[in-house]
Predict the 3D structure of the following.
Amino acid sequence: MIETKGLSRRFGEVVAVESLDLSVGEGEIFGFLGPNGAGKTTTIRMLGGLIRPSGGWARVAGHELGREDEAIRREVGILTESPGLYDRLSAERNLAFFAELYEVEDVDSQVERYLRMLGLWERRSEPAATLSKGMRQKLAIARALLHQPKVLFLDEPTSGLDPEMARLVRSFIAELKQEGRTIFLCTHNLDEADRLCDRIAVFNNRMLALDTPAGLRKRLYGRRVVFHLRTMQPAFIQAIERHPGVQGVEAVDNKLVISLEDPERENPALIRALVAAGADIQFVGELRRTLEDVYLRLLRPQQADA
């Protein structure tokens, strides 16, 4: 649904996006993570046909960037970090105006549908300028969806929303995936990205890493399982060290921290080995690194260089 090869954008001497190679499939929620100034919004604007790349090639929803930009703009919806609404128009009229631009067949029905869906129907007659930041964000989300786009670019979609509405928006994004929409998500909310995204790219003007959230954790930290024991004995460590598949063992108080290639496969045998050695196992859990840990570790070399 989205393909790029060597996609780049310069602003004078400043390189905003450097040689981006990317492939995003239909129905995928793809997370695009990076610090402020990393080129994320520039990437969205290029892929949405709003600005031209300085180099490289891209195809979005079957249309080639630079040759079929108008067709791309018809097939995508974009939520920018700044909503960019018409302040003096009502919420309802804001949506109707954009629905007419997109040649939506049943404007009134679509406008009502999204205003109700995002909890804005009772405020539909109020000027956009009088709405709270969260309400304006919801209105901008509705605007991006009016024409039923195949590809949706979301730049900080839950910014300014209270926890209840942010949860609603996340659920809504998951529902859009079930409809087969491709969603390109930029967010600073790493927990949100971890829960929603099928794959994640960490980006800082160029690609630093690309994988599933679990794949990124495994690549940088491996997988470690913690066995909580009633007491610790040297024999328990020896029983584990002899087991094939164990990459490392560390004893911390009454806990064994074991590095494994495949915990789901190895854990049952390790439990049997520990019980046979006389260990009382209280519980077992995986030592899970957060996506924030992964993100900061990937960015640290660039921050140090700066």
In short: DSSP finds eleven helices and 14 strands in the chain. The longest strand covers residues 14-24. Residues 302-306 have pLDDT under 50 and may be disordered.
